[in-house]
Design a protein that fits this description.
Helix content: 25-40%
Radius of gyration: 23 Å
CATH topology of the largest domain: Aminopeptidase
CATH superfamily of the largest domain: Zn peptidases
Number of helices: 10
Shape: elongated
CATH architecture of the largest domain: 3-Layer(aba) Sandwich
Strand order of the largest sheet: 1-2-6-3-7-22
Number of domains: 2
């Protein structure tokens, strides 16, 4: 690294390792799954508490802070004048539900063999702390900034992103923004999103209950179904266990899979899909139940949409992905959610028609929502600044990429996602992915990311925005 500022950046990051770990631990300790709206807490008490904690940490670091009615908050290197161009980072302090399969308390950070384990260490509380420390460096260094820098802290990214909608409606947008909520090097395009529910008729048959999944955008690692059939009439299968139900003559069928992010389903095992196949193969359900289960079997048959008839690949993005996220039963009606990430050569109308064809008379497609793909040219000045900075620090020679994950970047006129994950860094067996159990982040890589972010924000000062 031949940048004259590197020695100072490197020293700052290394000297603050313990402080960074301390503050990640403090932020992770605040459970922040979306809850019931309250006054001053539009996304529930948990997200509000986490946003408050992040702003508390920012103030301790000497940054100027602001809380925008509990929707979103930020820290600035210096007050930003009206009409002044500024740079921004944006992370989020809300998390997906902790889910199942953890080896310890999800909200207590553990350090094991150089890895941090805890809900949010990677997505996105760890990166939130990195951004605050990057701004601390910029402020404390005394370097004159052409563009002040704002670290935006969201509270609703994992569900609806109403936090950034609120910001866009009420506050000025940055000249350029990056979000540390994905993988390195630089993601300059995100697939579109298509989601909805596959809803049964009132079945009132053999299935008494069916529940599974913790989030629409996560592959469920466990689910259960209660059936009005004695356990001695059923046989265990791979990924399936059986136990006697609370009511005489009933059985609880449990599916045991492997969780992961809906945008990256490779290697996951969907517990709902395991139960659906088991029910159909066992032959215990009514004709109406079987008809609906066949629809679900088609959904769970693959993760590229081939069985549903919606597979797509445009050569720019990775191919389409689709997973079933949650399932619930109430008053005899089963609702199965799905999460689809799609490239540019299809659209929600085409996919809706295909899914309705699969549903036939056995199910209804309801509560459909979608977002279009977005793409920023890789040769734009800010993106080139980020990719060159990453490569200068790591020596890797990487190029920008596109992905299936959806981040805040698509909500800004000029924005990308920028680390801190490394897809080529294998997870140890004791750590899990974002949205999974034992969510893990390599601490050395987080500290390296802090250095990259500081240098990138300095270099962005040198281009015309």
């Amino acid at each position: 690294m031949n940048d004259p500022r590197w020695a100072s950046i490197d020293a700052f990051a290394e000297q603050n390792r313990d402080a960074v770990l301390r503050d990640i631990t403090r932020l992770v300790a605040v459970p922040s799954v979306e809850g019931t709206p309250e006054p001053g807490a539009p996304f529930g008490a948990g997200p509000k508490a986490a946003l408050d904690k992040a702003l508390e940490i920012a103030a301790e670091l000497g940054l100027h802070t602001y809380n925008a009615d509990g929707y979103i908050g930020w820290a600035d290197t210096a007050p930003i004048a009206e009409g002044q161009k500024f740079l921004a980072t944006i992370t989020h302090t809300d998390v997906v539900p902790e889910g199942n399969g953890w080896d310890a308390d999800p909200y207590t950070v553990r350090v094991r063999d150089g890895w941090l384990l805890g809900r949010g260490v990677a997505d996105d509380k760890g990166p939130s702390i990195l951004c605050l420390y990057a701004l601390k460096y910029l402020k404390d260094s005394g370097i004159a900034l052409r563009y002040p820098v704002r670290a935006l802290l969201g509270a609703n990214e994992e569900t609806h992103m109403h936090d950034v909608d609120y910001y866009a409606e009420h506050y000025p947008m940055p000249a350029f923004c990056f979000t540390p909520d994905a993988e390195f090097p630089v993601c300059n395009g995100e697939k579109g999103g298509f989601s909805g529910e596959l809803v049964s008729h009132a079945l009132n048959g053999v299935i008494l209950d069916f529940q599974g999944g913790v989030a629409v955008n996560a592959v469920p690692d466990r689910a259960f179904c209660v059936v009005n059939v004695p356990a001695d009439r059923l046989t265990p299968a791979e990924g399936i266990t059986l136990e006697a139900g609370e009511q005489p003559g009933t059985t609880v069928i449990r599916g045991w899979g492997k969780s992961g992010h809906a945008a990256m389903p490779a290697g996951t095992v969907n517990a709902i899909g395991l139960i659906v196949r088991y029910l159909l193969d066992s032959g215990i359900c009514t004709e109406a139940e079987n008809a609906y289960l066949q629809v679900l079997r088609t959904l769970h048959a693959d993760t590229d949409g081939t069985a549903l008839g919606i597979a797509a690949d445009d050569g720019l993005f990775d191919p389409l992905t689709v997973v079933g996220g949650t399932i619930c039963m109430k008053d005899g009606v089963i609702r199965q959610t799905f999460d689809c990430r799609y490239p540019t050569n299809t659209n929600p109308e085409t996919m809706s028609a295909a899914v309705r064809k699969v549903c036939g008379d056995a199910a209804a497609l309801e509560n459909v929502s979608s977002r279009v793909p977005f793409y920023i040219a890789a040769d734009s000045p800010a993106i080139q600044t980020l990719i060159h900075t990453y490569n200068d620090v790591t020596g890797e020679g990487k190029t920008p990429f596109t992905m299936g994950g959806g981040t805040y970047a698509r909500h800004f006129p000029y924005a990308v996602s920028f680390g801190p994950e490394h897809t080529d860094l294998p997870l140890p067996e004791f750590a899990g992915p974002m949205h999974g159990a034992n969510e893990g982040a390599n601490f050395d890589k987080l500290i390296e990311a802090l250095k990259i972010y500081i240098l990138a924000l300095l270099r962005l000062q040198e281009i015309e925005l």
